[in-house]
Write a structure and sequence with these properties.
CATH topology of the largest domain: Jelly Rolls
Strand content: 25-35%
CATH class of the largest domain: Mainly Beta
CATH superfamily of the largest domain: Exo-inulinase, domain 1
CATH architecture of the largest domain: Sandwich
Number of domains: 3
Structural class: mainly beta
């Protein structure tokens, strides 16, 4: 940002106009709520050069040159033109997509309401970026005695900048400051999320002051969007915006519709393809094409599992946390026993740290790690991620053999991590969406029900064949459901069911205290249900003694087993 630019932007706030019709190529974007910002929607665009593409000038890399065609705007031959200002001047909460190219040493920015800036700068070579580098929220500054910053702004989480002459992308979600009826500010403006070239660089960053000099000037609840054009060569293309609400915008025509090559695991309408039992029915619901689990669960056993089992696959889904929360995606079976954890691997979805963790390595007993000589540097490590509450996030998991790659909002956070051969099974298993029990006392707060929501759950099997199945034997299917629906024994008279249930409860109390329930439908035999089976704990007996009354009462088949 030029130190003199903010002063020239003061008159911007009176610019309010109606956008013209969209170009033909914007039809798909329009369906999803986007408005394409072509030359007709931007003031001062007539002073920029129209082109079909841009590139560094061969003998002068500090300049850009255009190639014949349309769709690209370049800020003049020397990189100095009046800034582009949207004719619409009443944006409030907004989502923006921008593709840009800069020359060597160039400087620009995307400025919301003429006040809050995401910096654009030639800084791919910088090892420790600041708020004044590309992707930063520009710092406050003063011009006397010489131009200098008075705070750090907000540096990008990672330097995602590309070299001069390469096209780059910004995806920005911005919310305006809030004011009461008397005009007093009651909430700061915020950059909810900024993604630079596929990497999330800003999340949930409040901006209490204006950026740059004159940082104490009046803030407003709405305004135009500005692309700086007076401080270095920049080319732009594919600029589009849409009004934003928490949860984002999802077209009914595209929601839960899989991309080419993928299959929808969730159809947006019902639980087809999922194992449903009493606890699932109580804890999960479907609303407007979104899978939700917002209730308070006291005992484990309400995870939602696919009926089909998967071995090698690419899984994509969107998740949203209405409040700070904890959940996870489970897949494949684990080999070592991890008491109190589970039989399957879990890719963690969690607030305040833990997002993206492969939980098997974090819960692995020290004795087991020592036995296998596991070193700290051999474990999977991801950066600290705290998903923004109320916003949809995207996860992509690629599992082949014992190798996993993971992406979070387009950023690769696990790159072909290979499990130790003693850790994970390569046999197909269901995919589960965890419903976490109530959390009380850790960094997620008191009595937190850990609500979670999902949509757009798609999968593509890799080398699909015998390794991916819809189910196994009856016994195998029972084991798949142990954690979710408990073990349901054959119906027996009520008296026998109570005796079996009592014996189970007594044994369960020694280990994990799962819930033992007896279903007693009127006029029908009773059913004993244990929810859940202790996760992977083999100390439970394969058979449990049952009193003579239970046997003589007509319990069919062998003694109850786990």
């Amino acid at each position: 940002m030029s130190k003199s630019t903010y002063g020239r932007l003061k008159a911007v706030f009176v610019l309010i106009a109606v956008l013209p019709g969209l170009p033909a190529g914007a039809a798909r974007a329009a369906e999803e709520g986007w408005t394409q910002l072509g030359p007709d929607a931007l003031r001062n665009s007539e002073q920029w050069l129209a082109a079909g593409d841009a590139a560094l000038k061969a003998d002068q890399p500090r300049l850009l040159v255009g190639k014949p065609g349309k769709g690209v705007l370049i800020n003049g031959k020397t990189g100095k033109c009046p800034s582009l200002v949207t004719k619409r001047g009443d944006y409030r909460d907004v989502e923006m997509h921008l593709e840009f190219m800069i020359s060597k040493g160039s400087n620009s920015g995307v400025i919301f309401f003429g006040t809050y800036e995401i910096q654009i700068l030639d800084s791919a070579h910088v090892t420790e970026p600041t708020g004044a580098h590309c992707g930063g929220i520009y710092p406050r500054a003063e011009e006397k005695p010489t131009y200098h910053h008075i705070d750090k702004g907000s540096p990008p989480a990672v330097n995602a900048a590309k070299k001069p002459g390469e096209w780059q992308t910004y995806d920005i979600i911005f919310t305006a400051a809030r004011f009461d009826k008397d005009g007093k500010k009651i909430a700061n403006a915020k950059f909810v999320k900024v993604t630079h070239n596929g990497k999330v660089i800003q999340e949930n960053k409040e901006v209490p002051y204006a950026c740059g000099p004159n940082w104490d000037r009046e803030q407003r609840p709405q305004g135009p969007i500005i692309i700086q054009g007076d401080y270095g060569p920049i080319a732009i293309r594919n600029v589009r915006v849409r009004d934003w609400k928490p949860g984002g915008v999802a077209s009914e025509k595209t929601l839960n519709v899989p991309p080419e090559g993928f299959t929808a695991v969730f159809n947006g309408k019902d639980f087809t393809g999922w194992r449903v039992h009493t606890k699932v029915e109580k804890m999960w619901s479907i609303e407007d094409g979104v899978l939700k689990s917002n209730g308070l669960l006291k005992e484990w056993g309400a995870d939602l599992a696919t009926e089909k089992k998967y071995r090698d696959f690419v899984l994509m889904l969107d998740f949203r946390m209405p409040t700070i929360s904890d959940s996870g995606i489970n897949f494949r079976r684990l080999i070592p026993e991890i008491p109190g954890f589970g039989e399957q691997e879990q890719f963690n979805l969690r607030s305040r740290g833990g997002m993206g963790h492969l939980e098997s390595y974090y819960f692995l007993p020290k004795e087991t790690a020592k036995k296998h000589g596991l070193k700290e540097e051999e474990k999977p490590h991801v950066r600290h991620i705290d998903p923004v509450v109320g916003v949809w996030h995207t996860v992509k998991l690629t599992v082949t053999g014992r190798t996993i790659s993971a992406e979070y909002d387009g950023e690769v956070i696990l790159d072909k991590f290979t499990y130790h051969d003693w850790m994970i099974n390569t046999e197909p298993a269901p995919i589960r969406l965890q419903k976490h029990i109530v959390v009380d006392g850790d960094n997620l707060g008191k009595m937190n029900p850990c609500p979670i929501e999902y949509r757009n759950i798609f999968i593509k099997e890799i080398g699909a064949g015998p390794s991916s199945t819809t189910g196994g034997s009856e016994d195998e299917d029972d084991r798949e459901g142990d954690r979710d629906e408990g073990r349901r024994f054959q119906p027996v008279p009520v008296r026998a069911a109570r005796e079996i249930g009592g014996a189970l409860a007594k044994e369960a109390a020694k280990i994990d205290k799962p819930q033992v329930e007896i279903e007693e439908p009127e006029g029908q035999p009773a059913v004993v249900v244990v929810t859940p089976r202790p996760h992977g704990d083999q100390r439970w007996p394969r058979e449990l003694p049952v009193g003579s009354s239970a046997r003589t009462a007509g319990a069919a088949g062998p003694k109850p087993s786990f």
